[in-house]
Amino acid sequence: MSLSNACPVGFNLLAWSAPISEKMNPIAERLKNIGYDGIECFIDNQDVAAYRQFGQHLDQLGLQRTTVMVVGPDENPASESASVRSQAVDFLKGAIDRAHAMGATVICGPMHSAFATFSRREPQPDEYAHSAEVLNTVGDYAKQASIVLTPEALNRFECYLCNTMDQLAHLIRLTDHPNVRAMFDTHHANMEEKRFPDAIRTIAPVLAHVHISENDRGTPGAGHIPWDDTFRTLAEINYKGWMTIEAFTRNDIDFANSINVWREYNDPWDIAENGLKFIKSMQAKYDNV
């Protein structure tokens, strides 16, 4: 098997900025020159035209694209309030419109429930049911845009509805929509899963996106994530989706403060350059997963 059959590798622009603008153009160009297959960017409430314009630039570069998003308490899919859930549907449809304008094929992130919003109790069956109903509804909207939604399990300090692959798999089964799959993030799994191989096998039937994130959100390969277990198991399940580096810095102060990033982990270009080398070396080691 040649290396060209390996999973595509992307890099998340949140290392520089949450908003999309022309300032991201030279960054995308350099990521292309380094050897990335695509970029991932954050979807917020910017005008759709901003995403369309950036997508046109990425087309010129020959870069593919994925996106990431979060939802807040006013558009919480798991809310007991029908009006809030209705707002969640509208909010998610707006994100799909922006991703589609940019030419993205995936929207990932904790779209199943409000980020950093807690009920002070364990997740309830009706919360999973509410979230699944919203995701199923917007799954139809995503399908007509040829976009796959991949909800993400977060650690216990950022979310309570889905912390583990077992919980996420349960939600995806309840949602029961071909355009709503799942993602696996190594940073969150490092806190919540007992063993990476078991977690990956649990989510394997619906796995469609992977974030390659070091334990401290710095350069992949420089920390203590069980990378051999990760790449070996992804190869075993024949995973062929994106492997996207998600690392954080304090370049975008507002975004950094919102997710409690208080220090620099690594320079973003160190993360980009050495992270790609690391992923390529692990892909080659494990049958070009």
Automatic annotation (TrEMBL):
Residues 29-279 form the Xylose isomerase-like TIM barrel domain. The keyword Isomerase applies. Gene3D superfamilies: Divalent-metal-dependent TIM barrel enzymes. Coiled coil: none annotated. GO terms for molecular function: isomerase activity. It holds the Pfam family AP_endonuc_2. Keywords: Isomerase. This is Sugar phosphate isomerase/epimerase. It comes from Spirosoma profusum.
